[in-house]
Design brief:
76% helix, 323 residues
């Protein structure tokens, strides 16, 4: 052991004599500093989200309705709420509907958002500033306010959309009720959610394009690459991490959308536009089956985690193949 220590000491002395610095020493305080810095944020997150999730999980194992509330009793039912939902065809219909609704919205958001982001990169300064201002204003509008505006736009009697379609020759649309069917209600909700989400994708994509070295485009032009070839060979590979991260965030945001769907038609008509968050609220608060509503919300979290885990697995596998 002493020989090893002497050898290490001699090596350090030789390094210093050659002008090199001795190897840095990290104390215990320096090693634990990152954990101390994130400790306040972690404690706040646990206090605000963790305890609520625990209480909701406990509620999902109870039979809680009006009778239990009035009598102030707690009736534990084990996994009955979960088994009832997993064995219900209504739950699985809503789950499939939620996945399809999320996929359609995310595809539209990413496609239109990326096109507008690339347009921002090619516009002049004044037009870029004007378009960016419009995107920021749309993004900053509160969800409830934006939903109210869309209710006015698609109103049956005095809506702007029906008025414009009527003047364009579609007279059957003069008094059309956009919330009378599943497809038309989802159309309104999709337009609303896509409109609210495009600014986030477009502005972030434009910001990401500013980090691409111009020399890459110049080299591609010298090689005879057109606009599409420059996008596929320069822009897209460089911004691929952005596309993957933004798609991941949009999946989460769209899947848990509640305000837009509930405010437009409360999941109607005939509960045909309910997604899992709306379904949990209607079963829990609306029908006052609070234990069942809590179980649905926990299952919603599990499904969302499964979707995001599958997506991340594909991303990591693709990155591994590229390496």
């Amino acid at each position: 052991m002493s020989a090893q220590i002497e050898e290490a000491t001699a090596e350090s002395a030789a390094r210093i004599s050659r002008g090199g610095a001795p190897p840095p020493r990290r104390g215990r305080t320096a090693g634990g500093l990152p954990y101390l810095l994130i400790l306040p944020a972690a404690l706040v997150t646990v206090a605000l989200l963790g305890w609520t999730l625990v209480k909701n999980g406990l509620l999902s194992f109870q039979d809680l309705n009006k009778r239990q509330l009035i009598r102030r009793v707690t009736e534990w039912t084990g996994f009955d709420n979960y088994s009832d939902q997993l064995g219900s065809s209504d739950f699985w219909k809503v789950a499939v509907r939620s996945v399809v609704f999320t996929a359609a919205n995310v595809v539209l958001i990413m496609l239109l958002g990326c096109l507008i982001g690339l347009l921002l990169a090619r516009l002049g300064t004044k037009l870029r500033l004007l378009l960016s201002l419009g995107l920021v204003l749309a993004w900053a509008m509160p969800v409830v306010a934006a939903t109210t505006v869309f209710q006015w736009l698609f109103a049956q009697r005095f809506g702007v959309v029906n008025y414009v379609l009527d003047n364009l020759g579609w007279h059957s649309m003069a008094d059309y009720n956009w919330t009378s069917s599943q497809l038309s209600t989802f159309f309104v909700v999709t337009v609303l959610i896509v409109w609210q989400s495009i600014p986030f994708v477009a502005i972030n994509l434009y910001a990401a394009t500013t980090t691409i070295p111009k020399e890459l485009y110049e080299a591609a032009s010298l090689d005879g690459a057109g606009s599409w070839k420059q996008f596929t060979s320069v822009t897209f590979p460089f911004l691929k991490p952005f596309f993957l991260a933004t798609t991941f965030l949009e999946v989460i945001w769209v899947f848990k959308s509640f305000t837009q769907i509930f405010a437009i038609n409360e999941g109607g008509p005939d509960r045909l536009t309910e997604t899992l968050p709306v379904y949990a609220f209607v079963e829990g608060m609306g029908n006052q089956h609070f234990g069942a509503g809590a179980a649905i919300s926990i299952l919603t979290i599990v499904i969302l985690l499964a979707l995001t885990a599958y997506y991340l697995r594909l991303v990591l596998k693709q990155e591994g193949d590229e390496l």
